[in-house]
Amino acid sequence: MTTVLVTGATGKVGSRVVQELRACGVPVRAFVRDPDRAAAVLGRGVELAVGDFAEPESVRRALAGVERVFLTSGDSLYKVEYETNVIDAAAGVRRLVMLSTVGAEVGSPVGLFDWHGRIERHLRGSGIPAVVLQASHLMSNVLAFRETITQASRFFLPVGKARIAMIDPRDVAAVAAAVLTTDGHDGKTYLLTGPEAITYHDVAERLSAAAGRTITFVDLPDEAAWQRLVQAGMPEWLADDLVALCGLLREGLAEPTTGTVQALTGREPRDFAEFARHHAGLFRLC
């Protein structure tokens, strides 16, 4: 197989896509901004295409000679521009696999969902053979609360008792590698979830068991959560989005589970208890 270009290659999903493809013996080119950080995250021996989504020429250079692409980027106000530029530059590739999200929809009140919806629409109109992976709430989102948990043994979100079929980024990456390297997926959209829908109270219990200390989840009203997020340094647009997202989670947006991970990879997705054990060292007291 020819080289696969992985964008967002140092991110929580992209880095694991690189690992999965290399484990299968597939040549990988990682599109990165910082080669030193890339070497630290990905290890030596990975071909790096150093560039920036904001520099179209660097994107075109990264795509030279590539037939398959994994597309993802960090969440920012430029996400639609960056990813649609990659799609435009990728005309002629044999397959493009895009990482999207559950709830992606043009016009969604959640900006991130609207952005993903617009990118999906652009991809469908591009004529490129493509696969969309709509991932549920990533288990790794809880890592954003590491500092609060280590300092105060608690974390907060305005999600109430919402049940969420969280998924481990490693399982998303395994599916991405599978659809990048096997046929029969073009034109499909796959919804990826974990094995069960759990609450953030369940998350706290499983983190507590893994870390050997009591960790508590605190539900907050929307306004109080927004204030805390902004005071902690989060941009207001992102705090707006997170609070709106939590409202949709309370309505059951991410509660359904699917068997897609097992069907495409041959194994069951990891549950949150396994994720918590894998990252337990991050939440233990020194």
From TrEMBL:
The UniProt entry, under Pfam families, shows: NmrA
Q: Which residues form the signal peptide?
A: none
Q: NmrA-like domain location, by residue?
A: 3-251
Highest taxon listed in the record's lineage: Bacteria
- PANTHER family linked to this entry: PRESTALK A DIFFERENTIATION PROTEIN A (PTHR43162:SF1), PTHR43162
Q: Under what name is this protein listed?
A: NmrA family protein
Q: Which organism is it from?
A: Carbonactinospora thermoautotrophica
Organismal lineage: Bacteria, Bacillati, Actinomycetota, Actinomycetes, Kitasatosporales
